[in-house]
Amino acid sequence: MTTTATLPSPTKLVDEFMSKLSRKDPHEVEFHQAVHEVVESLAPYLMAHPQYMKEKILERMTEPERVIQFRVPWMDDRGNIHVNRGFRVEMNSAIGPYKGGLRFHPSVNLSILKFLAFEQTFKNSLTDLPMGAGKGGSDFDPKGKTDAEVMRFCQSFMTELSRHIGPYTDVPAGDIGVGGREIGFLFGQYKRLRNEFTGTLTGKGVEWGGSLIRPEATGYGNVYFAREMLKTQGKDFNGLTVSISGSGNVAQFSAEKVIELGGKVITFSDSSGYIYDPAGIDSEKLEYIMDLKNNRRGRIKEYAEKYGVKYVPNARPWAEKCDVALPSATENEIDENDARMLIENGCFCVAEGANMPSTTEAIHLYLKHKILYAPGKASNAGGVAVSGLEMTQNSMRLKWTREEVDQKLLQIMQNIHHTCVKYGKQKDGFVNYEVGANIGGFLKVANSMMAQGLV
Ligand SMILES: NC(=O)C1=CN([C@@H]2O[C@H](COP(=O)(O)OP(=O)(O)OC[C@H]3O[C@@H](n4cnc5c(N)ncnc54)[C@H](O)[C@@H]3O)[C@@H](O)[C@H]2O)C=CC1
Ligand SMILES: O=C(O)CCC(=O)C(=O)O
């Protein structure tokens, strides 16, 4: 049993905990990275509050309550059979039903989904809505597939997943590679198998149970959060230059909100490269990107050809000078070198739209230079927050207006900012949003787990 007298130093606590965790599943590097980031920043708090260590809360939080893995066979348009792997990681249900997105991408494996589900635990807690944490998906690659192939894949995936989810059990949504089209196919199959019309999935179409503002929520929420950070230095987006990575859901709606607030968006990217438009991507050009990515499913390079701007293949946009960076593509897309370039070029604010886009070394650099840095679990929580509001509307059989949902989203992001400041403000006034988000997210889950006995 750990007592105050036998407590190790924070560094020893982190090392001992991480070496035990890594020994269990040595290949799960993304999961270990996400846990290390949390444990490193929580360690001093845990030393001062030994009850959480005594109750082995971290050990319990890093072991998923349940992992489901299954075969997903499907047929392409030519009649060839393919077999993919499906997963759902049901991470933590201390404060509500498992909640979190589904990712369809060839890189998907258990390590990635465990890192995402672990992050989701803190993120969902920060929203202050009653949502536990889960994440799932498949190594299926929707790129280059026809609508009919994507539908057959989704139907096969849901045929198994439907046994494990439900409005009071586990409520999936979208993530990379899973947007409105996929949620439609998944929902249709769930309804058919279970013979029920419930809010089991979120991100649904507005005509059939979806919430207004859910597509916009992650991007808008990230910009609302960044605006709160800027306010602490007496600044706002008006006149700032903003670099965005990705060109999917989060990137598009982050850009829409930045443009509305008077900022200049200069970059977008996809897995093949990035475009740099020094004149700024205005609403009309953004509309072109939305059509290119959401309807024509083309490559971002086509933007450079249409508007005659620079395209850099196989690269990320962080060498371009900006004031604010909103990484909105994928994990580990800003390494130490990228972070150094950003800071040396005058970037003073990084707000993560993606999950874990910054490596550990990049985060250490942000903190060393005391720039405004928001970890994704705080700043991209707007997506799951509006998913929570979609669940509420489904339960009440009501539909809120666009303005009502947007107002609630703004309030939630401001509350999360407040929580981060509360737990992350240091003696010199600097706000360490990473520490603030981790302590703020941890407490509600940890206290709920302790109240519910040894589960
Ligand atoms: N959709 C949502 O509500 C939420 C999404 N997120 C996170 O935001 C990030 C983006 O997700 P979405 O926009 O929803 O997905 P999406 O599928 O709509 O877009 C993903 C974008 O990332 C790019 N991308 C994917 N892999 C890449 C790679 N290896 N290198 C460079 N670019 C790459 C794609 O080309 C695409 O532009 C992910 O980290 C996701 O987990 C976080 C919170 C909520
Ligand atoms: O809306 C949701 O339930 C999930 C959003 C998500 O996957 C995320 O926050 O990373």
TrEMBL record:
Binding residues for NAD(+): T218, N249
SMART domains for this protein: ELFV_dehydrog
Per UniProt, residues of the Glutamate/phenylalanine/leucine/valine/L-tryptophan dehydrogenase C-terminal domain are 211-453
- The entry marks the following residues as binding substrate, namely K99, Q120, K123, G174, S387
Note whether NAD occurs among the keywords.
yes
Q: Which Pfam families match?
A: ELFV_dehydrog, ELFV_dehydrog_N
| Keyword Signal attached | no
Please tell me one Gene Ontology term that the record gives under cellular component.
Answer: cytosol
A GO BP entry is: glutamate biosynthetic process
**Assembly description:** Homohexamer.
| NCBIfam families, per database record | PRK09414.1 (NF006929)
Return the protein name.
Glutamate dehydrogenase
Which species is the source of this protein?
Prolixibacter bellariivorans
Supply the gene name.
gdhA
